[in-house]
Specification:
The complex is a heterodimer. By secondary structure, chain A is mostly helical. Helices cover 74% and strands 5% of the residues of chain A. Chain A has one domain. In chain A, strands 1-2-4-3 form a four-stranded mixed β-sheet. Chain B folds into two domains: 74 residues, Winged helix-like DNA-binding domain superfamily/Winged helix DNA-binding domain (Arc Repressor Mutant, subunit A, Orthogonal Bundle), CATH 1.10.10.10; 55 residues, no CATH class. Chain B is mainly alpha-helical. The chains are: A mainly alpha, B mainly alpha.
């Protein structure tokens, strides 16, 4: 039954995703964890692609047409419906980009000389090209990085006025860390994938954990580059306090993350580097590793293999489900032989 | 369930005495102290209060009747005597009272109240943020002096 095939496919993705997430949580390397999260987010796409291809393939074939009416309807509606939702997710992502672009264009102004110098110095230390820096005249804490190809850093006047030099430096270091890790394009993709499959709990969990990880990773990187974790903790605490006193609609969302996270981040910075946790890896160390191992080839390899495995499982699933009905790749193969 | 008729807010008194008169509060405390489901008669209350202060029976009777009119107590007749039951638990009464006061204030003073309320909305977080800031400032000062 074709509906059963579709549903079993979704079930496989959910099960695989759940197992994968559990595995990822045990990993210590930030990059590996991120790859794992992206894998979980991308897996439903594979499943959907097979589903849609299946509909296209089976339409008009005897086994499809001969199936009961409800199976026909559901078997077509399910993958097509999922496809529509996926496209909707992509659309949302596009509009999100456009809105950000408009906001930045409208409110962003040139930064002062000192700020520019600070950004340049930090960018050099992190090994990234200096991004575009803009300041917006808003009396609320705001600090974020955006841009798929040309990263832009936006800071509000509140930040410059209420934080001391070291605190501003640490906030900039945090944002530049996002640039160094190419967080915006990856998060954007992750959000599109999550929206495309919002009904899957594994996708929502993977997205949440990816977002959570990226903030912590950038906190670590910033603390390391500035050698002043307390300055970042101080900046976060001040922003948090301000956000509590006057909850506005967009109070430094990208810097703050969610309310529960900020307390965790502050306490973590206060606790300092923990033994056994792979947190204080510098850009230099990572560069060295990259030269030795090639561009994260190990993790990438695992990812490709995993997706390939999913593909194989899905095809096998298809064959198993449809063979008893006399249609599907098994019978086609039999015909060929 | 009908709302209790709370019309005054006495800021200088503690606890439920902010919402009720002193005698009314004492009576309600006695009623709430009874095991759930067990009613209280005027005589029960009179016997206790007469020990504490020289009250007249009729005073207790009329106050309890007033509490029933204010919809804090429910009255049932059981062979010749009136038995009073509380309409709300003490917790329920307090939360309704607080809600009532906040609504009243919001209606009268929208802007000013709202600004202060959000810190109230999560006092734990606000306190925690202050605490963390103090600790961080202290540690940074130590760091600077090193």
């Amino acid at each position: 039954m074709h509906t059963l095939l579709g549903l079993s496919s979704v079930l496989l993705v959910l099960l695989g995703g759940h197992l994968a997430l559990n595995l990822v949580r045990g990993l210590r390397d930030w990059s590996q964890r991120r790859d794992g999260h992206l894998l979980v987010l991308a897996a439903p796409v594979v499943s959907l692609a097979i589903g849609v291809a299946g509909v296209h393939h089976f339409a008009g074939r005897v086994c499809f047409v001969g199936a009961p009416a409800w199976d026909l309807t559901l078997g077509t509606a399910l993958p097509l419906g999922m496809g529509l939702v996926a496209l909707g997710g992509l659309g949302l992502g596009g509009s999100r980009l456009a809105l950000m672009h408009r906001f930045v264009a409208r409110s962003g102004g040139p930064p002062g000389r000192e700020l520019r110098a600070l950004v340049e110095h930090l960018a050099e230390r992190l090994g990234v090209r200096r991004p575009r820096v803009l300041v917006c005249a808003v009396d609320r804490p705001l600090a974020f990085t955006y841009g798929l190809f040309r990263p832009t850093l936006l800071l509000s006047t509140w930040m410059v006025e209420h934080l001391d030099r070291r605190e501003v430096e640490s906030v900039l270091a945090h944002e530049l860390a996002h640039v160094a890790r190419r967080d915006y394009p990856i998060s954007w993709l992750a959000t599109v994938l999550r929206d495309a499959f919002f009904y899957l709990p594994t996708s929502r969990a993977a997205h949440r954990e990816l977002h959570h990880d990226k903030e912590l990773a950038c906190d670590d990187l910033a603390a390391h580059v500035t050698s002043r974790p307390l300055a970042l903790a101080s900046a976060l605490a001040k922003v948090w306090q301000r956000a509590l006193a006057e909850p506005a609609l967009e109070t430094a969302q990208p810097l703050l993350g969610t309310g529960e996270m900020i307390e965790e981040r502050i306490e973590r910075l206060l606790a300092g580097p923990q033994a056994g946790r792979d947190v204080w890896r510098t850009t230099d160390a990572r560069r060295r590793e990259r030269r030795e191992k090639g561009p994260r080839s190990a993790a990438l390899g695992v990812g490709v293999v995993a997706l390939g495995a999913l593909l194989v499982v899905e095809i096998a699933n298809t064959a198993v489900m449809l063979a008893p009905m006399g249609c599907g790749p098994v019978s086609s193969l039999a015909g060929l032989l | 369930m009908a709302e209790p008729a709370i019309t005054t807010l006495r800021l200088d008194r503690p606890g439920i005495r902010k919402a009720l008169g002193d005698l009314e509060a004492e009576i309600m405390e006695l009623v709430w102290a009874r095991p759930a489901g067990q009613g209280t008669t005027v005589r029960d209350v009179f016997e206790v209060l007469h020990e504490r202060r020289r009250l007249a029976y009729t005073t207790v009777m009329s106050t309890m009747a007033r509490l029933a009119r204010k919809r804090l107590l429910r009255v049932e007749k059981a062979d010749q005597a009136y038995v009073y039951y509380p309409r709300f638990t003490q917790e329920e009464f307090v939360s309704r009272f607080v809600e009532h006061v906040l609504q009243d204030l919001l209606v009268s003073f929208s802007g000013a109240t709202l600004a202060g309320l959000s810190a109230l909305a999560d006092p734990r977080a606000a306190a925690r943020a202050s605490q963390l800031l103090d600790e961080i400032a202290r540690r940074r000062a130590v760091e600077e002096s090193e």
